[in-house]
Amino acid sequence: MIKLLYLHEPGVLQNLATRYKHNEIYTYAGNILIAINPFKRLPHLYNTTMMEHYKEATFGELSPHVFAVADVAYREMINKGTSSSILVSGESGSGKTETTKMLMNYLAYLGGRPKVEGWTVEQKILESNPVVEAFGNAKTVNNNNSSRFGKFVEIHFDQNWRISGATIQTYLLERSRVCHISKAERNYHIFYLLCAAPQEVKKKYELGSPKLFHYLNQSDCYELDGVNDADEYLATRKAMDIVGISEDEQEAIFRVVAAILHLGNIEFEKGKEEDSSAIKTKTRCHLDMTAKLLECDAKRLEDALIKNVLKACKEGTTRNLKTNAALNSRDALAKSIYFRLFNWIVDKINKSIGQDGNSKSMIGVLDLTGFESFDHNSFEQFCFNYSNEKLQGHFNQHVLKMNQEEYTKEGIEWSYVGDKQDVLNLIEHKHGIIALLNECSSSLTDTHETFCQKLYVKFKNNNFFSKPINPQNSFTLRHFAGKVTYEANLFLEKNKDYVVDNHQNLLAASSCRFVVGLFPSPAQEQNTLNASKFSSIGSSFMEDLNKLIEKLNSTTHQYIRCVKPNNCLKPTTFENCSIIRQLRSGGVLKAIEISCAEYPTKLMFYEFLDRFGVLAPEVLEGNHDDKAACQMILKKMGLKTNQLCRCMQSCRMYYAQV
Ligand SMILES: Nc1ncnc2c1ncn2[C@@H]1O[C@H](COP(=O)(O)OP(=O)(O)OP(=O)(O)O)[C@@H](O)[C@H]1O
């Protein structure tokens, strides 16, 4: 892109469209790699021959490519000993996860070891992808394989620049999906894979078609185009072997997954006592099966679902739950189990791969959940979009600032262009939205209505906040990527990070060691966490993001901007408006704008002389150095709107209106 003589939006778009037509999906815009999702397999771009080419080449010698970006990070590590982070960003479905996998493949190729017995570290790292995707990805309206969590993978290298370990840090899994799915979406892949497992496995867990399970049949979408769940089940089992999850552990994991499906089929009716509920007789078989799979007492499970332990009263005092509250209790249990299971899997992978405490350098790859705006947006979208704001803030600070600092360094007069990102401030300031949400979540009297009323009063003059006419109890934020309206009705509940005491006690008493490991007894947990204290998901997510930014700031950065060319997920369709919107909101056009605003064209001195020397042949004939010769030509032509850089090896001339 920077080779274009004139940089402007239509030119940028035309350039990308032409390249995309020829399957050239990668383009550089300065130090950013733009990657346009091809929505079709392009194996020739990623094979070993291609890796060999990029390994041999210097940056810029070959066509833009995701391998070239990883190569820069690897070479910088070798030459300067620096650690790097590759930040992959873009909307949901734009190709971040695929790009991340290509980067990891290439780094494994560069830093891999000759095969010894068993699985190598890099094989384990690569095979962690299908495992975490099976448990953490799902079909959404934007993407058939949408990551419902963010991740930062740190790959460690030893003194010989070989891969010596890795850590996967995950961020905020979308818990609500376990129990609620919208039209045309699916639950987490693993549930469908297990329903497509070999007959003997399904028999063991009393599973059948996904249509039989409430947590899967709320949407009529069961299959994914081009994906065979039975094959994926086997592939996931194999990947679990490779990442070091033992046969027994896999058995326990799938038992827990099956238990969640049975748990979701338990229904309630009015109980005999007033304001109480009871298990519907026809669904009692699911209660028994859930108890069997979780190896806990069926009666205790029943009580844990239809009764609540009163904390304020003496030990053992319980209150009956009405049918709706029992349904909520059932769903809360399912979400807690799944969330803990997901974290257990990530921890296990980390332990199995191993971290290298003596590592010389690391290369990190960041893939956060993309920006989302659905018809209905809740707390999860709020958090995902907040993390995208955070990443955008980092990008603005580093890329826009970096470009402009170059002007300053080169002695070019320049007035600063930048985004202040006030919406970030609105969310995370000590008196911002998260703080208010925490205040309301921990109060006994606040509801989602009072939370919204407080928001409306507090932020009525904030340009990034507005109160929509519809729906009630919602608020709109003007994000960098567009406006999103959030429905606040479950915000308070979803912000609370806790496991119901009843559920905790039930599972801590399971005869299955694996289940107990997911839910250590409160006494054990008390050591690490003050259970009685309110714990806010919003705040801990904010803390995690701040730590992440700190880590990113301690490394050098490479940026990859993934772009979704259309919303119908089809190859060859290039929707100009949507692409321009993504480039604008992602700061790519802003970076280009900095180049355009006053000095759209940059030429090396010798290029300028080559091109414009004809205007002053006498200058060319004289014995002047290049910079002085350029100055003489400009002076002769009476042009004042151009500027010359200070003399450095990479000296360029910036000029306008020539
Ligand atoms: N380089 C590529 N080559 C072929 N297909 C691709 C490529 N990048 C993306 N895709 C296709 O686009 C789909 C969506 O990509 P991906 O899952 O990486 O998006 P994402 O940005 O990570 O989305 P989300 O934020 O929802 O997780 C992939 O499942 C794949 O079909």
Characteristics:
single chain; 658 residues; alpha+beta; Kinesin; Methane Monooxygenase Hydroxylase, Chain G, domain 1; Alpha-Beta Plaits; three-stranded antiparallel sheet; 19 strands; globular; binds adenosine-5'-triphosphate
Secondary structure elements and their pairing?
Layout: H1 9-21, E1 26-29, E2 32-36, H2 48-56, H3 66-80, E3 84-89, H4 96-111, H5 121-136, E4 137-138, E5 146-147, E6 150-157, E7 163-171, H6 189-195, H7 199-205, H8 229-242, H9 247-264, E8 268-270, E9 277-279, H10 284-294, H11 298-306, E10 307-309, E11 318-320, H12 323-353, E12 361-367, H13 379-409, H14 422-428, H15 433-442, H16 448-458, E13 465-466, E14 474-479, E15 482-487, H17 491-495, H18 501-508, H19 513-518, H20 522-526, H21 537-553, E16 556-563, H22 576-585, H23 588-597, E17 601-604, H24 605-612, H25 617-621, H26 626-637, E18 643-644, E19 652-655
Parallel strand pairs: 2-16, 3-12, 3-16
Antiparallel strand pairs: 1-2, 4-5, 6-7, 6-12, 8-9, 10-11, 13-14, 14-15, 17-19, 18-19
Helix pairs in contact: 3-4, 4-5, 5-6, 5-8, 5-12, 6-8, 9-10, 9-12, 13-21, 13-23, 15-16, 24-26
Residues 37-39, 41-42, 90, 92-98, 142-147, 369-370, 562 line the site of adenosine-5'-triphosphate.
